[in-house]
Design a protein that fits this description.
CATH superfamily of the largest domain: Vaccinia Virus protein VP39
Strand content: 5-15%
Oligomer: single chain
Radius of gyration: 24 Å
CATH class of the largest domain: Alpha Beta
Length: 454
């Protein structure tokens, strides 16, 4: 394409690649930003447009179906994404004049060499929307103008996911989940022991950044309005914090007192829970972290170094099956933060709702069970295994634990409520499982504390 490089054009390129390739949106965004914008405001506009279009894609497409004479499915990908970008600016970006939203969108298509009839079609659709703004249903509006529209469209969620939540949680619960996902999530930090939460709050506020103490996790700091780079925050280079949602911060404590012995993070990822495990580990404790993906393993090492924890963690590049093949050590505690659908963190990653299919839950379950089996073989008698996902779905949570226990009679479920702060103990139910949901102001997490008999 011959599109000039500006915030709108780059947003359009990002959206096209994401839809065409089905890869995580964050990955596409990060690669597209290797060539930085000249001004920070262009980056902010581009990010807001990209993530806004993806979040509200279901609603935007429903509008296009109603107002366009051309079937949505028959539009070229470039046309479809351009219309979504124009619509989003008209409907959600109050600071963008309608004329700019329309004219700039049309100009993008002209620059791309699109025929005159197509640019005229896009211009006509956007101008019609601009004229009829007051009569159209607002996002999430289920009464009034939206009474005859499909609820999952107005809430911008796939039908299968909305109906699944409707069946499990009822109408009020499903609406609350969808609305929490659409509201987005603030940046949340975990203060490290180098400073502590109060010192970190003071440092952030002194820099003019709005910062609040978390509600549930004792080290949590929330930055409700921050939109800049994490690395630009005061204290980043000094290792005073790690990015981690409050719900995620509550999983590691379910292992119990991290005293002397061997402790394993079986799916370390970027190291959010690994660094927390290492920080909480007492004298005589040794932490091992395993991560198979090369890029994540590299970032794991960088995070451990930045937080001054490299000396407390033994890192292994590979899977826990690789670890078991060459290591006969037994661990006192193992955390399995398993790869999952991620349906509990849609508010942070809006593309997940569109990238997932219901049939994939069975595939995730199979992999999760395999990880638990491998972890169980590494656990010492009397040891604790904490299984966790950032999913809200029973196929990945309760069903996995049920299947695991059926094949491992020497394990039992323990609640672990006593290991959590008082404010967070409500998340452990009568069935002893830990659950959080986005409509509670945190990410959607599940965890089970599994104790091996002596």
């Amino acid at each position: 394409m011959g599109i000039s490089d500006n915030a709108r054009s780059r947003a359009l390129l990002i959206l096209r690649r994401w839809e065409n390739e089905g890869v995580p949106l964050d990955l596409v965004m990060n690669e597209a930003m290797r060539q930085p914008f000249a001004e920070a405001r262009d980056l902010q506009f581009c990010r807001a447009l990209v993530y806004g279009v993806v979040c509200w894609r279901g609603y935007l497409d429903a509008l296009l179906v109603k107002l366009s004479s051309h079937p949505l499915a028959q539009m070229k990908p470039l046309t479809r994404q351009a219309l979504r970008c124009g619509l989003y600016q008209l409907l959600f970006m109050d600071r963008v004049p309608p004329s700019a939203a329309i004219n700039e969108t049309v100009q993008l298509l002209r620059d791309a060499g699109q025929p005159r009839w197509l640019t005229g079609f896009v211009n006509g659709v956007l101008r019609r929307v601009s004229r009829e703004l007051t009569t159209l249903p607002q996002p999430g509006e289920l009464n009034g103008a939206g009474a005859t529209w499909a609820r999952h469209d107005l809430l911008s969620h796939p039908r299968w996911l909305y109906e699944r939540w409707l069946n499990r949680f009822g109408e009020a619960g499903a609406l609350a989940l969808c609305r929490a996902n659409n509201a987005g999530a603030p940046l949340t930090l975990r203060a490290t022991s180098q400073a502590g939460r109060d010192d970190l709050l003071e440092k952030l506020r002194a820099a003019g950044i709005v910062a609040e103490a978390g509600r549930y996790a004792p080290a949590a700091v929330i930055l409700p309005g921050y939109r800049g780079a994490v690395a630009a925050l005061p204290g980043f280079a000094e290792g005073l914090f790690q990015v981690q949602d409050e719900a995620a911060q509550l999983v590691v404590p379910l292992l119990g007192g991290l005293g002397a012995g061997l402790w394993l993070d079986a799916c370390a990822g970027l190291g959010g829970k690994t660094t927390q495990l290492a920080a909480l580990a007492g004298p005589g404790a040794q932490v091992v972290a395993v991560e198979p993906e090369a890029r994540r393993f590299e970032l794991l090492g960088a995070n451990l170094q930045r937080l001054g924890l490299s000396g407390k963690v033994e890192t292994r590049s590979g899977t826990i099956a690789d670890l078991a093949a060459g290591d006969n050590r037994k661990f006192q505690g193992i955390l399995v933060d398993a790869p999952c659908s991620g349906l509990g963190v849609i508010r942070r990653h809006p593309d997940i709702r569109w990238n997932r299919r219901e049939v994939e839950l069975a595939r995730y379950q199979s992999g999760q069970l395999a990880l638990l089996d491998q972890a169980a073989a590494l656990l010492a008698p009397g040891g604790v295994l904490v299984y966790a996902t950032c999913s809200t779905e029973p196929e990945e949570n309760e069903q996995v634990v049920e299947l695991f226990l059926a094949d491992h009679q020497d394990f039992r479920v323990e609640g672990g409520r006593e290991f959590l702060p008082v404010a967070a103990q409500e998340f452990v139910g009568d069935d002893s499982f830990f659950r959080t949901r986005p409509d509670q102001g945190v990410d959607g997490f599940y965890a089970a504390r599994l104790k091996r008999k002596e």
